[in-house]
């Protein structure tokens, strides 16, 4: 039994809906096959984008989508991906399987995707192998209104109007695949490149994001904030949850894993709390008013690829274990609304902790997808301050929405159900409706033969309320949301 005391007088702050952002890289079958099939495909599509996938994504109201990478971003030359397909240059996707990239999905197709799913743009520019001029011209191509060489080229390619770009990342993992730089060197380069990332639309200034640390590289954060902090709006953080302790060797399987790997994965996912706390503390030194964001633009679980699939494609199944990782991580973000204003789970389709898996014309929604759906009303709600004495395996977040309150909780324990009492300080409870995502086996998942094994159900038992409190009995391996009026 644990109690969550809800202090509705002391809100933590707005939950920026962009923490529910996603990431789509030119990697494996994320873009090609997963999102883009081309207008001539037999798979039903609109302007080349799969109708089934777009419909599913609209239902989870993806607020923002990062593209084109990832490591791919620092080898991407945007001019290769515009104009008639027959004239688009091909390249080798060196980071991801060495396959040929035909550049049929480029800037115009990305904005078509955003328009279809209703998401905002987060473009990641190329610092590793691109020039300042190339980056400047891309921003001009996308956002310049009126007449200019790049605006004219965009119009010639069929889009006279500029597109809004909300976020612009200057390099990706510049300490690794993005150029193996030292923080001092990157920070100087950042200052230079960002100078030419101009705001062509003063009404919608770009939010500029610098490459931040991997995991616990606190030195990187300190140096970049010290040298370039004045010139950035956000600094990224990448942290993946792995069942094995290190990156070397095998990470562990997505399915049929031992109990110990459930436990170690949850530990790894929970490290996000310390990472955010400590990187934020460094940012506080340079930005005490918390104007700059810590942008967790890559997070999620990472396993060995599914047997028989291309190791460079990072295709993995997704289970109730991943749903628990998603829920506990989103809770951590919601506890840090003062610093974390944008996050992007990796990745959207067919790669790592995906929302959606496809196989030819078939498509399934993963348990992670359903967490994003169940948490929808947290987007742009007000996170409330809570005190609790919850068991170690249970985490929660409470928000005030325009319809009432949303309580979300996860029990990532393997054996015990937990009773959780939510005590409201002032609110008089009149109704409570619950939804549960649950399984009794650790690797329960959806696949193309059985697509609906794990999906949310209305809670018909284990949920009671009186005027001052709501009590939930949450089984092990479960995610629950309760809408309270
Ligand atoms: O998401 C897969 C890869 O993980 C990204 O390309 C890279 O930025 C990170 O190392």
UniProtKB/TrEMBL annotation:
Task: Give UniProt keywords alphabetically.
Answer: Carbohydrate metabolism, Glycosidase, Hydrolase
Q: Which SUPFAM superfamilies match?
A: (Trans)glycosidases, Glycosyl hydrolase domain
- Catalytic activity field: Hydrolysis of terminal non-reducing alpha-L-arabinofuranoside residues in alpha-L-arabinosides
Domain Alpha-L-arabinofuranosidase C-terminal intervals: 297-478
Q: In which pathway does it act?
A: Glycan metabolism
What's its EC?
A: 3.2.1.55
A GO term for molecular function: alpha-L-arabinofuranosidase activity
Per the UniProt entry, what is one GO biological process? polysaccharide catabolic process
Q: Does the keyword Isomerase apply?
A: no
**Which InterPro entries is this protein grouped with?**
Alpha-L-AF_C (IPR010720), ASD1_cat (IPR055235), GH (IPR017853), Glyco_hydro_b (IPR013780)
Q: Which family does it belong to?
A: Belongs to the glycosyl hydrolase 51 family.
> What assembly does the database describe for this protein?
Homohexamer; trimer of dimers.
Protein name per its UniProtKB record: non-reducing end alpha-L-arabinofuranosidase
The species is Schleiferilactobacillus harbinensis
């Amino acid at each position: 039994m644990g109690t969550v005391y809800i202090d509705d007088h002391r809100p933590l702050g707005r939950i920026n809906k962009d923490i529910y952002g996603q990431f789509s890289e030119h990697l494996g079958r994320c873009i090609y096959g997963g999102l883009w099939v081309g207008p001539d495909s037999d798979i039903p599509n609109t302007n080349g984008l799969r109708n089934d996938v777009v419909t599913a994504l609209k239902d989870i109201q993806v607020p923002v989508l990062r593209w084109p990478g990832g490591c791919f971003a620092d080898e991407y030359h945007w001019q290769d991906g515009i104009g008639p397909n027959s004239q688009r240059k091909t390249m080798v996707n060196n980071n991801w399987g060495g396959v040929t990239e035909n550049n049929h999905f480029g800037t115009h197709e990305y904005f078509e995707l955003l328009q279809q799913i209703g998401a905002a743009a987060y473009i990641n520019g190329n610092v590793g192998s691109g020039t300042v001029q190339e980056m400047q011209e891309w921003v001009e191509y996308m956002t310049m209104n009126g007449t200019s060489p790049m605006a004219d080229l965009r119009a010639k390619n069929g889009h006279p109007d500029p597109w809004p770009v909300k976020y612009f990342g200057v390099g990706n993992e510049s300490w690794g695949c993005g150029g193996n730089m030292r923080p001092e060197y990157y920070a100087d380069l950042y200052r230079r490149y960002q100078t030419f990332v101009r705001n062509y639309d003063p009404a919608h200034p770009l939010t500029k994001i610098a490459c931040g640390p991997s995991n616990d590289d606190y030195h990187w954060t300190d140096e970049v904030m010290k040298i370039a902090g004045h010139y950035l709006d956000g600094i990224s953080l990448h942290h993946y949850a792995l069942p094995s302790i290190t990156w070397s060797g095998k990470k562990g399987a997505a399915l049929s894993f031992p109990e110990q790997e459930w436990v170690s994965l949850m530990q790894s996912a929970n490290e996000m709390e310390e990472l955010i706390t400590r990187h934020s503390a460094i940012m506080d030194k340079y930005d005490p008013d918390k104007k700059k964001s810590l942008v967790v633009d890559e997070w999620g679980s990472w396993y060995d690829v599914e047997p028989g699939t291309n190791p460079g494609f990072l295709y993995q199944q997704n289970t109730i274990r991943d749903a628990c990782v998603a829920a506990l991580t989103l809770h951590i973000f919601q506890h840090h609304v003062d610093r974390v204003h944008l996050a992007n789970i990796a990745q959207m389709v067919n790669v790592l902790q995906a929302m959606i898996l496809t196989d030819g014309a078939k498509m399934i929604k993963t348990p992670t997808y359903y967490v994003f759906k169940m948490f929808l009303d947290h987007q742009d709600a007000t996170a409330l301050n809570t005190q609790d004495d919850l068991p170690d395996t249970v985490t929660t977040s409470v928000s005030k929405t325009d319809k009432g309150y949303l309580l979300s909780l996860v029990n990532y324990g393997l054996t015990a159900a937990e009773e959780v009492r939510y005590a409201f300080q002032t609110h008089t409870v009149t109704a409570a409706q619950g939804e549960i995502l649950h399984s009794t086996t650790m690797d329960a998942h959806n696949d193309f033969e059985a697509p609906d094994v794990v999906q949310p159900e209305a809670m018909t038992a284990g949920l009671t309320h009186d005027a001052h409190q709501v009590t939930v009995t949450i089984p092990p391996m479960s995610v629950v949301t309760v809408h309270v009026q």
